[in-house]
Write a structure and sequence with these properties.
It contains 19 helices and 14 strands. It is α/β, with parallel strands linked by helices and 430 residues long. The chain folds into two domains: 213 residues, Periplasmic binding protein-like II (D-Maltodextrin-Binding Protein, domain 2); 194 residues, Periplasmic binding protein-like II (D-Maltodextrin-Binding Protein, domain 2). A hairpin with a 2-residue loop joins strand 4 and strand 5. Helix 2 packs across helix 14. The longest helix is centred in the middle third of the chain and has 26 residues. It starts with 14 loop residues before the first helix and ends with a helix. This is Probable sugar-binding periplasmic protein. Pfam families: SBP_bac_1.
């Protein structure tokens, strides 16, 4: 069968547009019963439409083509940082009982609404068939299990609490790049030194990047145990330590370039990566690809370290794929879930993406194929205390996260002060 790899643009948000760019004459054919249909194609919705994400998807599709040559991959990618546009489109399609064959989501609480609504199949049987319970670490299986069932298959694991720092800017401010601050207060002092040197201390982009920054400050100021209690509803959002974290967030936000608050993570990161004009950016480890594409070398041009105060904590998120109820090509979905969870698929994808495989059964030789950062992240994921990301859907249900991002937007516009922001988060968590 001839394959078609069709990449849909962000503008293709209508059902007709997505159908048009599927590149398949039999789009929409087959039974809507998830127990029937053929494996001749699989329609996949992601937000991997540009940069390292797109390259990672292409590497994954290459493995898919080798493993399942009779199943056509149909790319229905929708652009937008952290998947905001894709999630909006998906909710409309799922409610209308017009699901894709599979879609990308963040593993964890983000899927709770879709599970409760009955949109997703239990894929626990595939975990047995593909022997994933032996391949994935127990800590990951626990985060994927809901009332004894599993509803998605992860392609990777990312870490959110990483600071990426420009060596030149730090040294010009008299700071030692090899010795980062060990607390948020000490980090703010370093930022002031950078500001006094005439450079931008830190940069952030749109609301999801700001929420990621805030969650890492919460982890630093509360510690892993109390952060987990906060996520579980066992610690109040008006706790004194939470208030301290929000004040720290406000201080740091006032050191950023407000002109970038409407931008996605890559434009906001440029000052650290290629312009030597900004010292710090807090970003998930997909950021390493931006340095690689600019031929920057770790230790020489940039350094990375956990957000000060979070050493020994791994702020977890994972891209995961589902099997929707009513998918038109359920066997094709199974083929895709098989590839993205396979050792070959995870190695090919994560080498490019900057994340680490969800599988814990890689050999030493296979681990050695990965760049320095990813090797360090694999080690940390096996030893650090794991907490779940708010911004990336692992910690809280999607409606809660969306309310928090909306509140940050109001804070950005000046319609809400930092105390109001803290109260808005408390209200959202209810």
């Amino acid at each position: 069968m001839r394959r078609v790899l069709a990449v849909c643009a962000a503008a293709a948000l209508s059902v007709s547009a997505l159908t048009a760019c599927s590149g398949s004459d039999d789009q929409g054919s087959g039974s809507t019963d998830s127990g029937s249909g053929s494996a001749n194609q699989v329609n996949v919705v992601t937000w991997w439409s540009a940069g390292s994400e797109k390259k990672g998807l292409e590497a994954l599709v290459e493995v898919f083509n080798e493993q399942h040559p009779d199943t056509e991959f149909v790319n229905e990618a929708i652009s937008g940082g952290s998947g905001d546009q894709a999630k909006q489109k998906l909710q409309t399609d799922l409610a209308a009982k017009n699901p894709p064959d599979t879609y990308q989501a963040h593993a964890g609480a983000e899927l709770s609404s879709d599970i409760a609504a009955g949109y997703l199949e239990d894929v626990s049987g595939l975990y047995d068939e593909f022997k994933l319970r032996e391949a994935f670490p127990d800590s990951l299986i626990e985060r994927l299990t809901v009332d004894g069932k599993i509803y998605s298959v992860p392609s990777n694991v990312h870490r959110a609490n990483v600071v990426w720092a420009n060596v030149k800017v730090l040294e010009e401010a008299g700071l030692d790049p090899s010795t980062p601050a060990d607390s948020i207060d000490a980090w703010i002092e370093d930022m002031q030194k950078i500001k006094d040197s005439g450079k931008q201390p830190i940069t952030v982009g749109s609301t999801w990047t700001q929420l990621q920054l805030l969650e890492t400050i919460l982890i630093a100021d509360l510690g892993a145990d109390d952060y987990n209690k906060l996520m579980a509803g066992d610690l109040s959002w008006d706790d004194a330590a939470v208030t301290t974290a929000f004040k720290h967030f406000d201080t740091i936000m006032n050191m950023t370039d407000k002109g970038l608050w409407s931008q996605d993570w890559e434009p906001a990161m440029a000052g650290v990566v290629s312009e030597d004009s900004v010292a710090y950016n807090v970003m998930g480890d997909w950021a390493v690809a931006a340095f690689d594409s600019s031929s920057k070398k770790a230790g020489e041009d940039y350094v990375y370290f956990p957000v000060p105060g979070t050493a020994g904590v791994f702020d977890f998120l994972a891209d995961s794929f589902t099997k929707p109820v009513g998918a038109k090509h359920p066997e094709g979905t199974n083929d895709w879930l098989n590839t993205i969870s396979s050792k070959e698929g995870q190695i090919a994808f994560n080498k490019v993406k900057g994340s680490i495989p969800a599988r814990s059964d890689l050999t030493d030789a296979e681990i050695a194929e990965f760049p320095e950062y990813q090797q360090s992240a694999m080690k940390d994921f096996g030893t650090d205390t794991i907490v779940s990301s708010i911004a990336h859907g692992a910690a809280l249900p999607l409606p809660v996260t969306e309310k928090m991002k909306k509140a940050i937007g109001q804070y950005d516009s000046g319609a809400m002060d930092v105390a109001g922001l803290q109260q808005a988060f408390a209200d959202a968590a209810k």
